[in-house]
Write a structure and sequence with these properties.
This protein is of the alpha+beta class. The protein has helices spanning about 40-45, 50-55, 90-95, 180, 195-200, 220-225, 255-270, 285-290, 300-315, 345-365; strands spanning about 10, 20, 25-30, 35, 60-65, 70-80, 100-105, 105-115, 120-125, 135-140, 150-155, 160-165, 170-175, 205-210, 230-235, 275-280, 320-325. Helix 5 (about 195-200) runs parallel beside helix 10 (about 345-365), helix 6 packs parallel to helix 7 and helix 7 packs parallel to helix 9 (about 300-315). The protein is globular, with a radius of gyration of 21 Å.
């Protein structure tokens, strides 16, 4: 049953035309609310099951509007997504509260946590805004199992003005990758390397990361190729394949993965022949720190060397394809979570943001 609405607020449908939503593919009806998704069902149905599930996460979805309201409240329900396995890592993920990150007039203000449960709740984003009208930008929660959400209403002061924010003309960067791009390891949306790099570059960043499920499947490349809302693309995949298996868990030798990787780039490039694309190889991984190879007896350097070779060969005929060595950003376990030696900690995420921003800066300067 829906809780009583605060009568001092005007409660708006999240699909109100005065709201500008970034990186939103569709609204999917859920009871008396709507779930914002990054990938439309028509595409998700073509994807591996796990990747498709991650496409329902709100990571990278952001709300923009202008208002003089002193308060902003979001009525939301976090979906109770079924666990894939009963492991300490999964328990840790589920125990993490979902954070919203607030920007006002282009400047980061704060991040605030919702209650960590799967019942309808009202999350107060702010309740004492500075006097006057301002542009509000709100990054939605980004995590795995607690960032599939249903938006019921968005509340602002009853007498407040609400208008659509002016079009954002800054270059748009689509950041594609696995859990490192998705944001595993940090607390709030603003702390992901996607958000940090976007702030450093003064560009519009869109998070297209899919935790634990970026295996280089061409259906995902086709989805990216179908989009026209990005000016620059980064591709940071490979980590999920270092174990030597594909999305179905079947053994996949490095030679097969490299064929997929080359076809992945080709699929996107065919649709966007001149847009800048930055290819990034995996950062340090626990596989690097172990002796021996994966289930196929192959070491991580075979993947990195092969990916590098493919990009370098393509660069001979593609002036808009750029390369970034992931190890140049994180090559020390000091910058990884001690719990898994895969995902960057806060310091590691900042190093990735700095490295990616440095590589993207000259590409964006050409577009301004």
């Amino acid at each position: 049953m829906e809780a009583k609405l605060d009568s001092t607020l005007q409660w708006l449908d999240p699909r109100d035309a005065r709201f500008d939503w970034l990186n939103l593919a569709d609204w999917e009806a859920q009871g008396d609310g709507f779930q914002p998704v990054r990938v439309a069902k028509s595409w998700r149905d073509k994807w591996p099951v796990k990747t498709a599930r991650r496409g329902r996460s709100a990571a990278g979805i952001a709300l923009r509007f202008r208002s003089d309201s002193k308060r902003l409240v979001v009525r939301v329900t976090f979906s109770n997504v079924a666990d894939e396995a009963a492991t300490p890592a999964v328990a840790w993920e589920r125990s993490r509260p979902s954070f919203f990150s607030l920007y006002r007039d282009g400047r980061y203000v704060t991040s605030m946590a919702a209650l960590n449960h799967f019942e309808q709740q009202d999350v107060t984003i702010f309740e004492s805004a500075p006097a006057g009208e301002s542009e509000v930008r709100l990054l939605l929660p980004f995590y795995y199992r607690n960032a599939e959400l249903i938006l019921h209403r968005i509340g602002i002061d009853a007498g407040a003005k609400l208008v659509r924010a002016a079009p954002d003309r800054r270059p748009r960067v689509l950041f594609h990758g696995d859990s490192i791009t998705h944001g595993h390891g940090v607390t709030s949306p603003r702390e992901t390397y996607v958000a940090q790099a976007s702030d450093m570059l003064d560009c519009v960043g869109m998070n297209f990361g899919f935790g634990g499920s970026a295996w280089g499947d061409n259906a995902i490349a086709q989805t990216i190729a179908s989009r026209s809302d990005w000016d620059v693309l980064t591709i940071m995949i490979g980590c999920n394949s270092l174990a030597g298996a594909d999305g179905d868990g079947k053994p996949e030798p490095v030679a097969r993965y490299l064929e997929k990787y080359d076809a992945y780039i080709q699929t996107i490039r065919a649709a966007h022949p001149s847009k800048p694309i930055l290819c990034i190889t995996p950062i340090l991984n626990r596989a690097d720190l172990k002796s021996g190879g994966n289930i196929n007896g192959e070491r991580p350097e075979l993947y990195r060397d092969g990916m590098t070779r493919i990009v370098r060969e393509r660069q001979k005929r593609d002036a808009n394809l750029d390369f970034l060595d992931g190890l140049s950003m994180v090559n020390d376990p000091l910058f990884l979570l001690v719990s898994d030696l895969v995902h960057p900690n806060d310091a590691g995420m900042h190093r990735i943001a700095q490295g990616v921003a440095a590589a993207l800066r000259p590409l964006l300067e050409k577009l301004r």
